[in-house]
User: Which sequence fits this backbone?
């Protein structure tokens, strides 16, 4: 059997050609050959059934193989043969006879208004089970509770303002610890990976929101294939346009999930940003009210130690990225210090940070102080993220007032033109013109692929000079 | 209740989307009365109020996991109507393809996951245990073959969903259908991949799904007499033809007493006599109505409301759509619905091949537009289970009112004020029930409608017909 370490590696390395479940197929078959299959109760509360349908998109093994050969799917409204009282009897039997054995998966929110009467899941012997009662009672006897999908994990859309049924996420109504696998719907790999981890190695490592770190450890923004467009300030103007989706409302910078890397769905072919639409942050605890309208950019927020407006978050983060990935050249060239001793990461990072603070980065004295800043760049980025979140929270409180009007569709900020040339545009160095104050656009037009760059401007970082 | 009557309650009716309860009164081995209840409530239209109109589609698709593209399409059409824009032909094609792929997914999953276990003997493992007495009338070999197809259908339906993902970004709850068009460019690699998957799904439909539906017809002839209902059908237009605004691949229409007629939207009314919503005096301005859920209401037994067409309860779904187009007119019954759905899948997959060839890789797919400050829009389309309508009113650039009428509200509606039963309730009358403890026949009739209570149950303005929306 796979070791846990190998398993985690597998989960993290999911790509289009190598699916998580594909690699697990053999292992699962081996592990459960002849053994008693682990029971699973899949409860549908106030849900669109999207999560079980998403789970049905898993391949190799497909869901058929999984439920025939790996688990005992005791209860699921969509697939089980029994109906009516006979179905509810299954739940009662699970509670009595398989207590402590079964894994409970809940999808959908749990309405609590009128003691849960807004959502009945069935009845037996004249007793109607509300989703609230079912979730509470079943989680008491469960070996583990998984909240599948954002509704069950965080409330999601069904708990969005004004929340007519007073819906709550699962962890708010049960005492047991809950593993949250959010996403609207949850990706089949996330569910399969979490369930398999539970079966093989026990509870996976969770983040602050009780999501498996395996799948929700990074922000969409950090993993995004379009990140270079963001760094280059090439923004889409409408859905269907190419480039970065930030300006049309992408919530990637504040959303933790591995969609860009994993891709949807079972066969890993596409994901919302690749489909030229913004990420709507569906795996965030703040989804949807806390994130604002889907097509409105993330709101203004003050950045740490940076004298710029919040909408500059793009620019500032761009610097952070440039530093992190191959920012050597850009930073060096920007300050005109190429080949003059910008050898260490910190030096170069410092230059970038200086840029972000809007200082004149060409000054030599900036390198020392900002070198220190570079060490905390990671922290700084975290701060930026949390600041955006704070601002979002603030804004969400006025979501239902007349606020949308005042949020500009494409934010314009003062000083954009003046500052932009200073911001790092990591294009090949021989494209980089001298800073002669020419407006950016003209410059771009004037640029030739094999233009007038001197050989000394070529930034081959090979230490030959 | 007379002493020979038994009240049989099926709660939940499993293998349906969303939570459904059916109560039947059995007398002399036959159903004499029936009640269908949607038993969960969310209040989507309330949630949508006050939001950015462009967001409506992404919210509305989350009403339902199995037919999310239908809501995305209707919401996009409603906003486009309000903004008075036309989407490009390429966008029409792309949407049809995304929507069509979701249709195939829906029909495959309905037949195999939801419907088939009622007709065949299943293996003795969960989720097929417990079950009533297995008494399928199929020969062993055919039964086994169908079970084999059941297992293969997981892959086939997953591939259909994967097609939705290719042009839609993800599934369920696609991103690719946006007001203004479609967002994914039909590049040649995507078209090829889509085509390959379509070919495979089409083969599965023609070689396995359709023959299996036929086989059921062969071995369960009695089901052609079951669940006939009112025999009145309604369909909205489905899949607009590119380049021909207003013309649909599947035309709208009403089949009533054997006659076809045009749909007159003004004749559609809503009734909440038996729904858990408080009766209120008809508001002066229909837009000002407030929905108040009321679980204590005496006559109430469902979260679904009762849409009526000139006071008639109409049935909708693939059978109605094909009947109106003239593709399937064998009859109206439980198995006819199943067979028509299989035909529907085949026809749609054939249309999809045509649309795929018509795609132009370089033509625009999106029409940028300004969201109007004050406007009203309407989006009507056929969907997996019948006619779907979205109505939106925008005030000050935000949604002031949103209304959704779903197919399952037609089919699974409760009685109305005049005591007219909903279509499914009516269809259940006369259904033989051999064993009241295991009313499998009732399940078959109900499931032939492809219940989607996720769609059926949501807030609707009370005491007001759709007439109010016909001002534009």
Assistant:
């Amino acid at each position: 059997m796979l070791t846990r370490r190998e398993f985690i590696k597998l989960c993290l390395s999911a790509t289009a050609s190598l699916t998580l479940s594909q690699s697990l197929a053999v292992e699962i078959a081996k592990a459960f050959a002849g053994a008693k299959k682990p029971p699973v109760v899949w409860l549908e509360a106030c849900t669109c059934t999207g999560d079980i349908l998403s789970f049905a998109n898993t391949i190799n093994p497909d869901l058929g193989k999984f439920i025939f050969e790996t688990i005992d799917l005791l209860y699921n409204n969509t697939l089980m043969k029994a109906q009516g009282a006979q179905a509810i009897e299954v739940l009662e039997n699970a509670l009595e006879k398989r207590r402590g054995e079964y894994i409970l998966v809940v999808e959908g929110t749990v309405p609590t208004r009128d003691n849960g009467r807004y959502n009945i899941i069935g009845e037996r012997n004249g007793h109607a089970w509300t989703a609230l009662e079912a979730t509470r009672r079943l989680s008491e006897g469960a070996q583990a509770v998984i909240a599948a999908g954002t509704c069950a994990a965080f409330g999601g859309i069904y708990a969005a303002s004004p929340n007519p049924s007073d819906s709550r996420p699962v962890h708010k109504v049960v005492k047991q610890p809950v593993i949250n696998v959010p996403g609207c719907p949850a990706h089949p790999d996330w569910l399969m990976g979490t369930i398999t981890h539970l079966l093989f190695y026990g509870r996976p490592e969770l983040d602050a929101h009780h999501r498996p770190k395996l799948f929700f450890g990074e922000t969409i923004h950090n993993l995004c294939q379009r990140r270079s467009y963001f760094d280059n300030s090439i923004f889409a103007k409408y859905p269907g346009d190419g480039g970065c989706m930030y300006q049309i409302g992408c919530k990637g910078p504040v959303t933790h999930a591995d969609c860009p890397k994993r891709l949807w769905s079972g066969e890993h072919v596409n994901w919302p940003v690749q489909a030229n639409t913004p990420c709507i942050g569906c795996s965030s605890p703040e989804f949807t009210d806390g994130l604002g309208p889907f097509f409105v950019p993330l709101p203004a927020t003050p950045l740490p130690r940076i004298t710029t407006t919040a909408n500059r978050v793009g620019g500032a983060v761009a610097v952070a990225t440039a530093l992190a990935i191959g920012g050597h050249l850009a930073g060096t060239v920007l300050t005109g210090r190429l080949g003059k001793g910008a050898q260490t990461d910190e030096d170069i990072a410092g230059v970038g940070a200086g840029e972000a603070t809007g200082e004149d980065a060409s000054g030599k004295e900036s390198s020392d102080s900002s070198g220190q800043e570079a060490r905390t760049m990671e922290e700084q980025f975290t701060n930026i993220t949390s600041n955006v979140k704070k601002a979002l929270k603030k804004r969400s409180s006025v979501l239902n007032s007349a606020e949308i009007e005042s949020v500009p569709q494409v934010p314009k900020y003062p000083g954009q033109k003046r500052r932009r040339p200073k911001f790092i545009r990591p294009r090949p160095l021989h494209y980089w013109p001298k800073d002669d104050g020419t407006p950016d656009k003209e410059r771009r037009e004037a640029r030739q692929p094999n233009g007038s760059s001197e050989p000394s401007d070529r930034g081959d970082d090979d230490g030959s000079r | 209740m007379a002493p020979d009557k038994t009240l049989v309650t099926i709660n939940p009716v499993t293998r349906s989307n969303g939570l459904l309860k059916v109560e039947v009164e059995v007398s002399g081995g036959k159903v004499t009365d029936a009640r269908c209840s949607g038993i969960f409530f969310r209040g989507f239209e309330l949630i949508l109020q006050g939001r950015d109109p462009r967001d409506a589609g992404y919210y509305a698709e989350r009403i339902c996991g199995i037919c999310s593209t239908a809501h995305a399409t209707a919401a996009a059409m409603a906003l486009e109507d309000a903004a008075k824009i036309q989407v490009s032909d390429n966008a029409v094609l792309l949407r049809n393809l995304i929507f069509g792929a979701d249709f195939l997914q829906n029909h495959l999953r309905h037949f195999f996951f939801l419907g088939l276990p009622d007709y065949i003997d299943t293996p003795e493992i969960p989720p097929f245990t417990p079950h009533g007495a297995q008494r399928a009338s199929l020969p062993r070999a055919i039964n086994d073959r169908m079970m084999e197809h059941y297992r293969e259908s997981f892959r086939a339906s997953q591939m259909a969903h994967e097609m939705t993902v290719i042009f839609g970004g993800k599934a369920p709850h696609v991103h690719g259908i946006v007001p203004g068009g479609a967002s994914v460019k039909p590049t040649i690699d995507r078209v090829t991949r889509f085509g390959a998957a379509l070919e495979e799904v089409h083969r599965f439909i023609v070689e396995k799904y359709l023959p299996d539906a036929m086989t059921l017809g062969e071995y369960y002839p009695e089901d052609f007499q079951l669940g006939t209902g009112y025999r009145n059908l309604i369909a909205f237009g489905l899949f607009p033809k590119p380049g021909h605004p207003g013309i649909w691949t599947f035309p709208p229409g009403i089949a009533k007493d054997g006659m076809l007629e045009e749909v007159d939207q003004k004749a559609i009314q809503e009734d909440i006599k038996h729904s858990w919503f408080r009766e209120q005096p008809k508001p002066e301005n229909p837009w000002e109505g407030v929905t108040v859920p009321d679980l204590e209401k005496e006559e109430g037994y469902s979260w679904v409301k009762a849409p009526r067409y000139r006071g008639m309860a109409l049935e909708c779904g693939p059978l109605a759509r094909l009947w109106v187009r003239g593709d399937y007119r064998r009859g109206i019954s439980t198995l006819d619905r199943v067979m028509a759905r299989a035909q529907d899948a085949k026809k749609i997959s054939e249309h999809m091949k045509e649309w795929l060839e018509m795609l132009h890789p370089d033509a625009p797919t999106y029409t940028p537009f300004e969201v109007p400050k004050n406007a009203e829009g309407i989006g009507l389309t056929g969907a997996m289970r019948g006619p779907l309508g979205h109505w939106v009113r925008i005030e000050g650039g935000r949604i002031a009112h949103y209304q959704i009428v779903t197919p399952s509200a037609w089919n699974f509606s409760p009685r109305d004020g005049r005591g007219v039963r909903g279509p499914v309730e009516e269809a259940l009358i006369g259904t033989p029930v051999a064993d009241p403890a295991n009313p499998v026949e009732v399940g078959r009739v109900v499931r032939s409608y492809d219940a989607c209570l996720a769609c059926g149950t949501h807030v609707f303005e009370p005491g007001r017909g759709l007439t109010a929306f016909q001002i534009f």
Residues 310-450 of chain A form one domain.
